[in-house]
Hints:
By secondary structure, this protein is α+β, with helices and mostly antiparallel strands. It has helices spanning 2-13, 22-27, 30-48, 52-65, 69-82, 85-96, 106-118, 246-285, 296-329; strands spanning 127-135, 145-148, 151-152, 161-164, 167-174, 181-187, 192-199, 213-217, 223-228, 235-236, 345-350, 353-358. The strands form four sheets. Strands 3-2-5-6 form a four-stranded antiparallel sheet, with no helix packed on it. Strands 4-1-7 form a three-stranded mixed sheet, with no helix packed on it. The chain has a three-stranded antiparallel sheet with strand order 8-9-10, with no helix packed on it.
Amino acid sequence: MKTSLAWLVVAFSAAASLALEPAAAAQASDADKAIARELYNDGVKALEAEHFAVAAAKFQNAVELFHAPTMLIGLARAYIGLGKFVEAKETYNRVLNEKLPANASDAFLQAQKDAAKEIRSLDEKIGSATIAVSAKSGALPAGLVATLDGQELKQAAFGMKRPMNPGSHELRVTAPDFADATQRFDVTARKDVAINVALTKVEAAGPTGEGAVRGGGGSSGEPTATTTNEATGVLVVPPAGDDPKGGSTQATLGWATLGLGGAGLVLGGITGGLALSKHASLEESCPTGQCGAGFNDKISSYETLGMLSTVGFIAGGALGAAGIVLLVTAPTTPVGEKASAFVPISFGVGPGSVRATFEF
């Protein structure tokens, strides 16, 4: 590369004056020609130093100011240094397709000869990729956008063998209502790689029909009643407290509270009966209303039973009333669902205590 670059400096020095075709020269101002000449000379120096990115930028800017085959040759060689063989080949083709006037300069004629010679080796360095994009729903969707290495890829190129530089590449395809598709692949010289992208339609996040539907469940795994806002199409999930199934929970709690109230009343009745029995026994043993020290235990037992009876009746009445309120205010069981069954309750009475057992 050093040898060809040295030749480039010598060969291009003769064209440093940027002798242009008459038409091209007529379209460029003197100021543009002066800037292009400076860019051209800087590009030659950068190319010789193997600063290929700098050289490519210099030559590209010079070409944009006005056209000259000599500058295109420099740009093609800079592309080769960067590994951009596809771009280099197309640049050489631009030089070869140039129709030079009969009085073209020797530098321009030499540029075409160099392009014809140097382009031959590029086919051995270029690979290709055949990119196909399809949609499972049928035709490609409207609004589809495909990019290859960040550059837009036209749909007309789908299914065609696309010349590409060796190395890693990234294809990205997006379309409304379809999942984004991204594929990374490698290209090697003289080989074609097939890239197939099948777009998948994204299912709606929620139902769009009218009325209530069954949505995803909460932490308990039970489904949650949901509705769709017809104005916005947004799926609305009611708070947990609004779940109709909460009625069965309140009803169960009501039955349990009512059962406890019943247990309290049973306790009051039993202990009350025992207290009355103790009282009758004491009246019989102490007709004067005065009992000796030997009756202290019986008197204490009588008083305890009386206290338990009073507490049992008060607590039983309060709990029974609360249970009735819970049952009356419980939400109605939704249509199609079974109402909560009666909660089985069993009672047991022991010395100074009463026991209630619930089965859910």
